[in-house]
Design a protein that fits this description.
The protein folds into two domains: 90 residues, Lrp/AsnC effector binding domain/regulation of amino acid metabolism (RAM) domain (Alpha-Beta Plaits), CATH 3.30.70; 222 residues, 3-Layer(aba) Sandwich (Glycerol-3-phosphate (1)-acyltransferase). By secondary structure, the chain is an alpha/beta fold. It has a seven-stranded mixed sheet with strand order 5-11-10-6-9-7-8, sandwiched between helices. It has a four-stranded antiparallel sheet with strand order 2-3-1-4. It is built from 13 helices and eleven strands.
Length: 335
Amino acid sequence: MPTYVVFTKLRPEARKNIDKNPDRLPEIDAQVRRLGGKITHQYATLGEYDFVTFIEAADNAAIASIGAEISTIGTIKHTTLPAIEMDRFEKLLKMQPYRTEPHRWQTALWARAVRRAGRYWVTGRHVKRYCRPFTIEGTENLREHRGAAIVIANHSSHFDTPAVLSALPERIRGKIVVAAAADKFYGSRKKRTWWYSLFHSTFPVARGGGTKQLEYPLSLFKRGWSILIYPEGGRSKGAVQKFKHGVAIMAMQAGVPVIPVYIEGLRNVMPKGQREPRPAAVTARIGAPVWLRGVASVPEGTALLENAMRELAGMPPHRAAAPEQEMAMAPAGGN
């Protein structure tokens, strides 16, 4: 798992609390483990920060939740930095730079009009040509939905995004952006990165970009926009793979529902490793919006979302974690 370095500075009252309750630090260690992380090393330091902690975590979203938990000991601030092994860092130095800042004009009225006018030629005709027949089930689950949402889908093919967007009603499809890997779609050698932002409605997400990656999505939710994310983290070989915690964290912070969409058949249209699509039957099943209000922990929220997707796929649910293994999510804090 990726390693992160967390620098922590305590408030004066926090130091007194640790003196009175020295078991508080081991409690933090246990809570980090419950969130799927692991503290590998921890040092008390002299200088600007009081502690330096090395943590292994699944991804940026997971370390953000862990950072919020660390703040409960009474931090003035904490700074989290991703640590990169030297051999991988040398490879990164050889990579071409890529854009990490979204094209914020993509939500402007003129961009929405251009995107809608060009939708058929950019994506619609390809869905019509290769998804034959294209069956959409569960649209009745969205009749009462209005406003922002996180749309999640299983990820089996590069054809997923056009199919998912085509399955959504216009009131959602007209105000949705798609999270896309910055190094793949927004590299400096790609002269038309604006094309993806305009016609495919994507925005760049940098690997290892930290909690700053949440700023743009959270600002969009406040303006009634939705976001399409693939919570498995990459293209899967099976029906539904284990979900990352990022979607649950974002939904709990933003207070928006999550709409699951299961796409079946796209592995036959464009399987991994194949560049040219071929016609095949495709079915999109839309589930009812899932709210995470009142959910006690991030792992519990992730389990709810994954089970909603598994139900659409006709798979048995994963058993949720036992109550004593769960941990209440701490309020967001720190820098």
